[in-house]
Amino acid sequence: MPKVKFYIANLDQISGVLCWTVADNYFDNKAETIEMYPELEGKMALTKTNEERYDIFESLLAPNYNKHIKSNENIYDSYIKTWNQYNDKYMNAMGKYFNMKWPNKDEEFQALVADLPIFPRNVEDHSFYVTGYGSLIDYCKKHTQIDIKNKKEVDKVFKDKFEEISMTVVMHECCHFFFFEKCKEIFSNLEYSDCNAPSLLWHLSEMAIEPILNSKQVQDVFKYDFKANYNCYIPKKDNHLMMDDIKDIFNNNSIEEAIKIGYQYLLDNEKALREANNEDVIPGTSKILK
């Protein structure tokens, strides 16, 4: 079965991701980046290319990166110790839910500890980013009343909430890998681009996170009320959430049928989905997977 291996992202990797997020207004990626790194905002107008952004970001972020490196090493150690308790049980649960065996039982999923506002994944090489110390501070700003300058208080949040914050991200991202691997069995014309935003299959994978991770198979491994990304709860059909229909589809069908029915549902309601998310994709132009 696959194993998640953890690494500390280097400054080069972090700067590369931020070059993408600050240029992307999709799902507020740019706003989230500026909120976490306000020092970048004034520099944005001075850059026109990713190369220019990269050079500025690397120099601006280096002090924080160096300041947090020891804390991120501690978080890295915690990831390894904590995830090792879950890896085999979780991967087995995913295999049962998706009714499949992972094609390469010795594969490594790469998790990179980084200070980022979002956690991008690469479905092609099965890598993803997870919470670093800077991300923990960002979490404290949004979800607690503590003084973020007080390292002892931040460290206490880390101690009390680490398992919840960290393991849910890892499980969320690994679930996507299983989802798209299953889609390879179902859709013969599936391509790598179909697994990324803003494709309808990508939307389905994000919405399906809630029913999949709240299934009995996963809940027996890790008790938690999993939620999809916030944008999944915006689109409506006939004055009710499309998300509710997707949950019904996944809760009442085999995974094979759920993916096919769910994809057709989004095709049939693409206009409402695209408009709710302010996407510039023309409804009716999405690829027909078969």
- Fraction in helix: 55-70%
- Taken together, the total number of domains comes to 2
Report strand %. Answer: 5-15%
Give unreliable regions as ranges.
Answer: none
Task: Enumerate the strands of the largest sheet in spatial order, edge to edge or round the barrel.
Answer: 1-2-4-3
Number of strands: 6
How many angstroms separate the termini?
Answer: 28 Å
Write down the Rg: 19 Å
Structural class: alpha/beta
Residue-averaged pLDDT, rounded? 90
Count, helices: 12
User: Main β-sheet: number of strands, strand sense, barrel status?
Assistant: 4 strands, mixed
Order of helices and strands: EHHHHHEEEHHHHEEHHH
Basic shape? globular
What does this entry look like structurally?
With 290 residues, this protein is α/β, with parallel strands linked by helices. The protein has two domains: 3-185, no CATH class; 188-276, no CATH class. It contains twelve helices and six strands. The protein has helices at residues 11-21, 29-36, 41-44, 50-83, 87-97, 133-143, 151-186, 200-213, 216-219, 242-251, 255-268, 270-276; strands at 3-8, 108-114, 121-122, 127-131, 236-237, 240-241. The strands form two sheets. A four-stranded mixed sheet has the order 1-2-4-3. Strand 5 (236-237) and strand 6 form a beta hairpin. Helix 1 packs across helix 4 (50-83) and helix 7 (151-186) packs across helix 8. The longest helix has 36 residues, at 151-186. It is globular and about 50 Å long. The model has no long low-confidence stretch (mean pLDDT 90).
